[in-house]
Amino acid sequence: LLFPVSNLCGKCRPRDTDLLQPSLNFLYWNLHQTTPCSQQRAVAVLLSNVSLLELLQKVLECTWLRSPPSEPAYLSSEDALLCSGWLLVASLLLYQHRYNTKVHQTLSLDLTEVLNAVIFRKKKPILLLVSIMQFLRAVLRQNFSSSLLVIIGQNTAQGATQPQPSSLQDAALHPLAMRQVFSLVVSLQNLLVHKDLPLSQAVVACLETLVEYLYVKNQDVALHVASQPWHQFLLFTLLNGGQKSFLQPEVLRLMTLFLRYQSSNIISQKEISQILQEAAEANLAELPEATSRALHLFLCQV
Q: Any one Gene Ontology biological process term (predicted)?
């Protein structure tokens, strides 16, 4: 079925949402729910379909071409298609890199547009933001060097006449710029305050990947970002005083992130002791899987 469904997608237009959305979901499901051997073949089938990749290019571009809905929580059929498109492309990036699959058609995206979709949200539905952050994590983890993706950014869009990066920091973080990094971090912090579980999970994961990317590129910048005083206010907001509030998965993962990058001004010995005390009093067998995993990573980091 993978072959005819991918061919069918390639014959569609982005406005064919009723047909495209379940079809893209089917392709996404095939990539994630099959055996490793079949997964490699599935990736090869999809990446060899030039029409499908051209269609995905058009779908992603609709993200910043269409007007935002009047109600941010409303997921229209067009938004649902965008979610499916971003998630599928993020998966293709991941598995193409894992299996070193041959690419027959590249995708081209403007990095500034992708970042602005998160930074300037313009009433985008939560699931669409989560999907775009999944894509952003994929490109960050691959150091913007996937053979499937051509990144057009502020330092790449002007070809031979492009200006040199404005600072040594921008040069080190290329194709990101420092101002984009800080705008993205602030936007992610603001999204965490919403306390929506899927959104919180995606935001924390994106923050983790971003700081890891920065640490490889420029350790000073990574440590500077991880030690921003606003992080402390963010933790105070998330810790609303409820019982076992330190054992929220997103809080534990944030604490682990700050510990990893030695942000002693954000998390102190007092907070560490409180987490250990709550963990000692909790029934560990009854903790949700996400909490258990986050607590394990935190304790290993300590």
A: meiosis I
